[in-house]
Amino acid sequence: MILQNDLILRAAKGEDIERYPVWLMRQAGRILPEYRAVRSKLSGFKELVETPALAAEVTIQPVDLLGVDAAIIFSDILVVPEAMNVPYEMLEAKGPWFNHTIRSEEQAKRVETDFDVEDRLGYVMEAIKLTVKELNGRVPVIGFAGAPWTILCYMVEGHGSKTFSEARKLLYTNPTLAHQLLQDITDVTIRYLKAQVKAGAAMIQVFDSWAGILGTEQYATFSLPYLKQIADAINDVPVTLFSKGAITSIPAIAQLNCNNVGLDWNMDVAAVRAQIGDKRTLQGNLDPCALYGSHENVATETIKMLHSFGKNKRHIVNLGHGVYPDVDPEKVKTFIKTVKSYEIN
Amino acid sequence: MILQNDLILRAAKGEDIERYPVWLMRQAGRILPEYRAVRSKLSGFKELVETPALAAEVTIQPVDLLGVDAAIIFSDILVVPEAMNVPYEMLEAKGPWFNHTIRSEEQAKRVETDFDVEDRLGYVMEAIKLTVKELNGRVPVIGFAGAPWTILCYMVEGHGSKTFSEARKLLYTNPTLAHQLLQDITDVTIRYLKAQVKAGAAMIQVFDSWAGILGTEQYATFSLPYLKQIADAINDVPVTLFSKGAITSIPAIAQLNCNNVGLDWNMDVAAVRAQIGDKRTLQGNLDPCALYGSHENVATETIKMLHSFGKNKRHIVNLGHGVYPDVDPEKVKTFIKTVKSYEIN
Questions:
Q1: CA–CA dist A15, A209 (Å, integer)
Q2: The pTM is what?
Q3: Which of A136, A260, B51, B174 is the most buried (most CB within 10 A)?
Q4: Region A57-62 average pLDDT
Q5: Looking at the domain assignment, is residue A46 inside a domain?
Q6: Positions of A marked catalytic
Q7: Is B1 part of a structural domain of the chain?
């Protein structure tokens, strides 16, 4: 299929672009009334994730309604531990919840790795295929997975946490088990991402949402080697590595076999560019809270952010974190409009 | 009163020391069975905070039981907003909860600043006096307060949060109100800390627990100017500024009129030392999760951390975050013993 808008892929590859591509993490779901209309008819979040036609519908909504330059498949990083026999529930107001946690070798016995990802996660691939078909080349579809470290955090902790001290405890008490689980997650994730690419994902993003709770050395030990395996395994499409909060590890991340490095809103763009040079595209990094401002302020903050990246064409515009649920979609449109009208040359 | 152990004060001032001083954030409370015995007889956390004799008792426990080189007064940073007529409750398993949040000028009308801190927070000063008297010079007492930015986070958000997006929203929607509240908190905090010093606190620590959710520029705008006022106002005793997660702001923090800069466990000690030079003492920064390891591993990790600080005598040993509640006190003793037997010269 010929893409009518391949801006984001060109930016990822360091090719010429006529303007900066823009999309938002969490653009599918959360903020759009049209999303909530679909969601309200269902039993819960997981029904939406597991119903390809509906997942495709909400994936395409921001392309139609907001004018973003890419669609990211509506799903959740926690489908991977679920496929590995560590299922989750999504509790209203509480977030993800696991009835089984994996903190010991005994508990790790339930973890399954030797399965066909199409069998257990076929609904994601089906949703990607439907999305690609319905988009009909308007914009590329981004597939994604959680980084092994972040998935381990949830498998061990069993729910969200500010410190993930149970997960970090494992790194000190049983690093062997931690590495074994990380390798298991990595193996499944590689098969899963390859299946997403086969289904039509034109770019892959790996979310290391809890990167920031590890110091540089532990990140190098417990996250980077697994990110490396993933980045090395996905060759057919550009790969984005987004390690939230891992500011001191950015140079090491940029060394991996990826196209794009995601930056959170706290990261100093000029400093990162100086550290890693021009061989990678940077993605980010407007503070999601900037979208709470007036339309005028949204435009001002967006332009300030764009300036911070200089005139370097290796930039995919995004927020520095997922868009927050109570943001006015009209403000998102102002953000996108501002990016699209920004003179690149 | 002559101090028998003034190691921490000498380290803070850059004077000679024969070994590194050591204490733990959150050492008073949480981990000791002797603390839980006191706590279990009471209606709740706040009763303990507000009862000077008991607060003094649990403040002294880690000096007796763990052998730390300083006592930090058992209290909470949220006593300040409470004194300002924005009261909190401490809910089991949920953490702090405010029935009133301050997000608008209308809501800000309830905020009071023109009061005598002895009237509303006298119980803290009383607890400090009792602690100083009962310690009888064995170790110094550390007083503390939250940084204005962190207190604002709670006043606006009303409870803990991973993103504090309500608090950060205010910075974009009504920066004038944010600055007004920050100034109000600063004014009260300075009076409060001076009263703590008058009561006998020999060192002051300011906790900017939510520093890490602001980028460098916003931190410079909404936190540093208020930290500066506090650091400039407290002259009689050493001041420690601990801005958790504010890695890119450390050089600016070190420029303030403080003795010690606290480092969290993710901060690279050598990099920070290279940035800020030798004019400040660094405090930290063992990963609190390291205390989950075996005794042997605790010792190894502690020595590794000590090595990372080089042989620089401007070091006060601590964790990089408050000690976690389920840590075995025996492991804490191993940490402390390892520090005390570490050859400094």
A1: 28
A2: 0.94
A3: A260
A4: 98
A5: yes
A6: 26, 30, 39, 76, 154
A7: no
